[in-house]
Specification:
Oligomer: single chain
Largest sheet: none
Distance between the termini: 41 Å
Shape: elongated
Radius of gyration: 21 Å
Number of strands: 0
Helix content: 55-70%
């Protein structure tokens, strides 16, 4: 509760400070906003559940959307319009998203294959399938 109240106070204070009085979007275009995104990266626990996998996957997808919409497209727009700016280097996590969701080769596809054989595939067999298909991927690591 205290974090939420502090966060809301900060956002409200920033909005009050940056608000342009009498701003007309028909003349000046869209309003300017500041977005706050603090979810990047995988949480790593000794034992993760499927729920944690889904949370991490969603976080990576949201981070990729942020990279695409805010970093990549804005920098491309600055270049097109000849606006001086300082290039921002960033890790494009599309490779991580692909590791999870790529058809026929990603973690979800491998899990889907395992689920088609309920009762026949063990955790060890699933792990072996992951290691066989993804073992050489630069961003895949296994405890095996």
């Amino acid at each position: 509760a205290i974090y939420e109240r502090l966060f809301c106070w900060i956002v409200t204070h920033i909005n009050d400070v940056i608000e342009v009085k009498n701003y007309d979007t028909t003349i000046h275009g869209k309003n300017t906003v500041i977005g706050v995104l603090d979810i990047y990266g995988f949480e790593i626990f000794d034992n993760n559940s499927f729920e944690q996998f889904c949370i991490n996957y969603c976080n990576e997808k949201l981070q990729q959307l942020f990279i695409q919409l805010v970093l990549k497209q804005e920098q491309e727009e600055y270049q097109r319009e000849g606006i001086p700016w300082k290039h921002i280097d960033y890790f494009n996590n599309q490779i991580i998203v692909d590791l999870v969701e790529q058809q026929h080769k990603g973690i979800i596809a491998i899990l889907d294959d395992a689920c088609m054989n309920v009762g026949k595939v063990t955790d060890e067999m699933f792990l072996e399938a992951l290691n066989n298909k993804l073992g050489k991927h630069a961003h895949f690591s296994s405890r095996k």
